[in-house]
Amino acid sequence: MTSPQAASDKLLLPSMMCADFGCLRNEVSALEAAGVDGFHLDLMDGNFVPNYGMGLQDIAWICANASVPCDVHMMAEQPGRYVSMFAELGARVIYVHPEADPHVARTLATIRELGVKAGIAINPGTSFAAVEPVLPLCDYVLAMTVNPGFAGQRWLDFVNPKLEQLVEASHAGSNDYEVVVDGNCSPERIAQASAMGVKGFVLGTAGLFGHGDYATTIQQLREL
Predict the structure, then answer these.
(1) CATH of residue 177
(2) DSSP-assigned letter for residue 179
(3) Residue 214 falls within a domain, yes or no?
(4) 94 φ, ψ to 5°?
(5) Is residue 34 part of a domain?
(6) What pTM does this model have?
(7) Catalytic center residues
(8) Is residue 5 scored above 50 in pLDDT?
(9) Are strands 140-144 and 117-122 parallel, antiparallel or unpaired?
(10) Does a structural domain hold residue 194?
(11) Helices first, then strands: H and E counts in the chain
C-alpha cells in the first residue's frame, strides 16, 4: 500500500464509512488531492459486529475509481468465503479477523495467492500470543484500539502494550509486516503511536472528518 509520499512516512488512510455519501465522488477526489495514502473500506455483516458498514456497491465503486490503493476490513463471519470477490473488485489489502475465522491461516494464504496483500485485524481483547503464529503470513496487522463496529469510540489504553509487541515483532525473524492502528486516531494518539513505531493510521471522526479542510488536516497529521 506504500505510496511515494509515504515511503518513509506515515500511512494515512481515511475510513470511508465516515465520508459524506451524498457526494462520494467529490469526497474521493478531495481526499486524494489532500495526499492520503489509501482508502479504508469497512464491511460489516451485522453478525460478527452488531452493525452494518459500507455496502458492496460503495466498496466496488471506490475500488474502481480511486487512484490510491484501497483496503477492505472484513468484520464478518467466515471471511474466507468472500476474499476472492474483494480481490476481483480491486482491493489491494484484505483484512480478516481471527476471531471470526477458525481457519485464518488458510484464509491469509489464500489472500496472498490472489495477488493481494494479506492483513489480520485484531480486536482489543485478542492477545499478541493468540496471533503470533500467523504473523509470518501477514503483510499488515490492523490493531483495533476500539471495539470494532462503530465510529466515535474512545481509545482503549490497555491495547498500548500489544501495539509495542506488534511493532517489535514486525520485522523480526520470518515476520515482515507493517502495523496499522484503527480506532480514535486523534492527533494526540497518532503522535503517541508513531513514537512506538506504528506505521499506519485509519482516520475517522477523531482525526479527519469534521475537522475542516482535508489538505490542511492531512499535512498537520504528517508533521506530528
Answers:
(1) 3.20.20.70
(2) E
(3) yes
(4) -125, 125
(5) yes
(6) 0.94
(7) 42, 182
(8) no
(9) parallel
(10) yes
(11) 8, 8
